Fold this protein.
Amino acid sequence: MDFKDGALGLAIAIMTIFVVISGIGAFYSNPEYSDFCPSVYNFHTEVECVDNGGTWSINEYGPTSKLVNGVEVPFESGDCKNDPTCSEEYSAARKVYSRNIFIITLILGLIFVSLGMYFFKIKAIGSGILGGGVITLFYSGMSYWSQGEDWVRFLISLVGLGFLIFLAFWFRKADHVQSQ
């Protein structure tokens, strides 16, 4: 493969990743923290905080009064925090989202690897799509790896390795038959 084919293959691999990532962003939005937890950090009194879905925590060591227009007025020293259940709901939604992204990108990665192997006769296209598929598989694993259980990671790795070895043998066999 000459330099032009290699550069074109690299460009195709990079664009493959851009297509995958931008496609996911366009058609499957990730959960936003603000959808689960209201913004309660700008409330400075317990009443405002609780009325807006927050939980007030008293700061025992904070000031008890403040100066307003030269007059000292009582001040509720504390912090407004989100209800802890909203963070749990957000985390659960993120976990489902990460799992789904993993499945989507795993399937796309395997499709791109397969297409790359098929089109490998046109070196720049085949190597580019194959490279994009490999990077998509890596992206897939990283999106869910930290949240998956050990046995799930092992099973995914085993099935992925088996599929790639199968593809290698299958396309090698097809190339061998065509060359005879």
In short: The CA atoms of residues 122 and 178 lie 15 Å apart.
